[in-house]
Design a protein that fits this description.
With 171 residues, the chain is mainly alpha-helical. 87% of the residues lie in helices and 0% in strands. α2 packs antiparallel against α6 (110-138) and α4 (56-84) runs parallel beside α6 (110-138). It is elongated, with a radius of gyration of 17 Å.
């Protein structure tokens, strides 16, 4: 995995100016953050059944609710980010996601976990739609294709499923 980041870092140093490099780094961070929201959560479902004392169907609903929030926020934030700018929606999405994570961590009942997963989905969709638009605004032509490829490579190589399983093993 380290070799991938070294190669990407080399590409970013040689080809891009500092603004493009920072933009791509921010998009990579938020893209992986959105992926973590599902990939670390999934291995913990059996443990959450015991913690909340509920059946697996309710926890599976929390996944559906997460993606519902994701879809709704993309429908709303997409046109609004075209009108008001990308940066505000990127920041708002990360803040909404962080609020959802805080509430999920402190959930005592399954209903509050489901609501917090919806909030996480709203935030993830908000910065998810801004990510693609920011890349399109920053890069042109072949550079746009290369930037999308870099984001895809990092997301494919990220190891959050393994990290989630290791966290569960240690807890």
């Amino acid at each position: 995995m380290f070799r991938i980041f070294v190669r990407i870092d080399f590409y970013m140093d040689v080809i891009m100016d500092i603004r493009q490099r920072n933009t791509l780094s921010m998009v990579i961070f938020t893209s992986v953050l959105g992926q973590i929201a599902t990939d670390i959560y999934l291995p913990s479902l059996p443990n959450l059944e015991q913690v909340f004392g509920v059946g697996s169907y309710l926890l599976q609903i929390s996944i559906s609710i997460f993606f519902s929030g994701y879809a709704i926020s993309q429908i709303i934030c997409g046109p609004l980010s075209d009108q008001y700018g990308r940066k505000i929606f990127m920041i708002a999405g990360v803040l909404i996601f962080a609020i959802g994570c805080y509430f999920a961590k402190n959930s005592q009942i399954i209903q509050s976990l489901i609501l917090s997963r919806f909030i996480q989905g709203l935030g993830t969709g908000c910065f998810g739609v801004a990510n693609r638009a920011i890349l399109y605004d920053t890069f042109q032509g072949k550079d746009y294709s290369k930037s999308i490829s870099i984001v895809s490579i990092v997301m494919a190589r990220s190891e959050e499923r393994r990290v989630g399983k290791e966290c569960l093993r240690l807890c």
